[in-house]
User: Fold these one by one.
Assistant:
Number 1:
Amino acid sequence: PEMTATLDKLSRALAAVGIHGATVEGHTDSTGAEDYNQALSEKRANAVKDYFVAAGIPADKVTAVGKGESEAKLTAECTAKKFKKRADLIACLAGDRRFDVNVETANEVQQ
């Protein structure tokens, strides 16, 4: 529900500024197999793209890219903490399970 509100707000903002293009990058943490994480990140990025398209953003303006675990930022920090419970490690890595949206507006293209 919290993410839905964020996506709704972002969708309205994107529609209002008249985007030239947007890239949605899906990310995962470093746990699990690399191939699995790549597929999961692609699924995450495509889910956000589908949300934007359903909200009225033209599909040809949005690109979805899976980054897998290639940009996981918390692995070293969380691993160094040597959690006794795997659940604590998973919680620590939560910030790596994300999506990023990079937007190019029509104004940026004209400059």
Note: The two ends are 38 Å apart (CA to CA).
Number 2:
Amino acid sequence: VTLRSVTLLPANQVRLTWEAPATPPDFYLIERAVGSPSAFAVLGRVGGTATQFVDETLPATPLTVFYRLKAVSRTSESPYSAVGNVQTADLTPADLSVTLTAASRIIFPD
């Protein structure tokens, strides 16, 4: 499997795209590591005809995130793809203020 791109999308989502082999596998196993490319954990899996995956589970804080994937069939597995990475953005609002007007109501200014 050839990992083609790792792209940062709005809201700290990350899209992975890859080139599929001529014979589709049963599924692709996608793994992610945060901070360094040493402790990968399974993030998800998609069907064998897929050529992209969107990671929607990243926090609003800046991180370096690493991804790899492999194709899995009933009788074999491909080697892992090359590792791709992306630097996420800090989406924490710096000027957020909250005004309490009643015990059960919070108003966020525009």
Note: The radius of gyration is 19 Å.
Number 3:
Amino acid sequence: SRRDIRRVLRSGATFTTPIGRVAQLAGSAGRGGRLLLVIGRSVAKKSTDRNRLKRRLDGAVLRLAGRQPLPADTIVMVSPQAASIPRRSVEPMVRDLLNRLGAPRHAARR
């Protein structure tokens, strides 16, 4: 919900990665964290390019973390430089992001 997003952005810890700026706030007891990717028009003018980048990032998160919940509610505000990241470099960058978040490990499917 919008209220949850505002709460994470206002009260969460923030740090920067090559993918973009990250805000993280521990989730409610009994519920795992959620991930929100924010890809604005400054990243790519065309919605098809933004959606392609979102699918690429979502796919890497799913392959690396599986369906395990994240330890905290997390918002990633994707930077314009992320649009030019080569496809083969996305997964290592997402792996580093998940490591910083403390996400559970999942064996990658090949």
Note: Strands lie at 13-16, 20-26, 35-38, 72-78.
Number 4:
Amino acid sequence: LYFAHKAADSIEVFHASWLGWAGRKRTQKLNKEVFKRPCTGGSDAHVAKHVGTGYTLFEGKTASDLYSAIKNGTTKAEGVSGFVFSFKLVLTQPRRLLKKIYNSFSSLFRR
């Protein structure tokens, strides 16, 4: 992972899903201290309600403007956490998904 980041133009530090919420602070810290890449936000949305809730701010309107902003390190990751939406969805999901969520959250408190 450490060597792979050198090929990346940016690092997604804001993702609107519950997994993004669970790892956001770690990802931001790792990027700030180790990767030092421009930040992006996203919501590739495995859940329809998450579409557009995570995004990248930059000067301009075109894909070319976005690319330039990433290359110049002037992007900003923003969004609204989809955690609440995800939690509602999770309550209706099978046991295996609940186990994944439990493991994700419990790992935050293990050292």
Note: The chain is about 45% helix and 15% strand.
